[in-house]
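> agent: user asked for a holo structure of the chain below bound to zinc ion. Plan: (1) validate sequence alphabet, (2) canonicalize SMILES, (3) run complex prediction with ligand conditioning, (4) return tokens. Step 1... ok. Step 2... ok. Step 3 dispatched.
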Amino acid sequence: MAGKKRNSRIEHLGHLLVLISLALWLRQDLILITSLSGAGTSLLLFWAPSTCSAPTQKKEPCRNNSKGLLGGCHITQHRWARYSGLFGTEPVSDAFTGWFSNAQRKSATAVMAIGFLNLVASGGALTFTSLP
Ligand SMILES: [Zn+2]
């Protein structure tokens, strides 16, 4: 139970960091926006609790617990299934399977996407404002 509570706190922390980074646009503190949205997106992609959902030999999604939207379970092939989907050795759909499988994952995916867009926007703005 304690592990479940801690994992849930990590997901909430990821959501909170992305929301704070959105609110910081009012102050236009680009360094802080970029840092917080990057940290929140990373937490959701690599540490927030999730289910594995890698395709099994029975062609069904794996139901084991995993860390993050991109993480796999304790089975080594499942851990690499998503990354190999991202880098072209497996179908791209393998990288994103299960991201919308339940309400918790849908909210994590939505907040992660918002955080990623926020990271790109603030990183771009930071780059162009720091040019001579
Ligand atoms: Zn798995």
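> agent: step 4 complete. Summary for user: Helices lie at 2-23, 30-46, 76-86, 93-96, 103-129. The mean pLDDT is 84.
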